Amino acid sequence: MREFSLWQPLAGRDFRLLWLGQSVSLFGDQFYLIALPWLTLRLTGSALALGTVLMVAGGTRAVFQLLGGALSDSFSPHVLMVVSSVVRGLVTGLIAVVVLLDVTQLWHLYTLSFIFGMVDAVFFPAYMAVIPSLVTTEHLPAGNALLRGTGRLMSLMGPAIAGIVISTAGLTAAFAIDTLTFVFAAVMIGLMKKSDRRADAPIEEVSAPSQRRGRLKGLITSIGEGLRYAWSEPVIRALFLFICAIEFSYAGPASVGIASLAKNRFEAGGGASALGWMMSSLGGGMLIGMLSAGSITGRRRRGPVLISGAIAIALGLGLLGFATHLLMACAVLVLLGIGGGLGNILIMAWIQSRTRKGMLGRVISLLMLGMSVLEPLSFALAGIIVTFNLKAVFVASGGFLLIASIFAIASPALRTSD
Question: I need a surface site. Which of 102, 218, 220, 403 has the fewest CB within 10 A?
Answer without folding.
Answer: 102
